[in-house]
UniProtKB/TrEMBL annotation:
Residues 11-38 form a coiled coil. This is CHMP6 protein. One of its GO terms (cellular component) is multivesicular body. GO terms for biological process: late endosome to vacuole transport via multivesicular body sorting pathway; protein transport; vesicle budding from membrane. It comes from the Eukaryota. It is found in: Endosome membrane. It holds the Pfam family Snf7. Residues 113-144 are annotated as: Disordered. Its main location: membrane. Keywords: Coiled coil, Endosome, Membrane, Protein transport, Transport. Belongs to the SNF7 family.
Amino acid sequence: RRKALLLLKKKRYQEQLLDRTEAQISNLERMVQDIEFTQIEMKVIEGLKIGNECLNKMHQVMSIEEVERIIGETQDAVEYQRQIDELLAGSLTEEDEDAILEELNTITQEQLELPEVPSEPFPEEIPEATPIKNRPKPELVAAS
């Protein structure tokens, strides 16, 4: 009977020890997850920091006034192109079309004096074209 009681106490002690060990393992796993999550948060914060630095550099290259100027020029160009499209689409009045036809008839009825065609052959050498120089663009910095 005493031996059985001793074995039961030993069993109870082992179970309590096992429960404490499982609780400690659970705490360790939770700590590892917290550390991993904190590392991810640090990477996100570092990414945001780098992104902000890149945005600041890009803002230095292009100001709001320059963007507004470019947008204004683009709108002017779109409006000008719309006017050209309207003219080409035939939005002329009948009076305009009559005047254009009359001018065409006048031009085709005139006898034009054309210069004589040269009889000597063309030169063999073709002069080299000079390259067009482009305006240097502001340097943009890529995010790392």
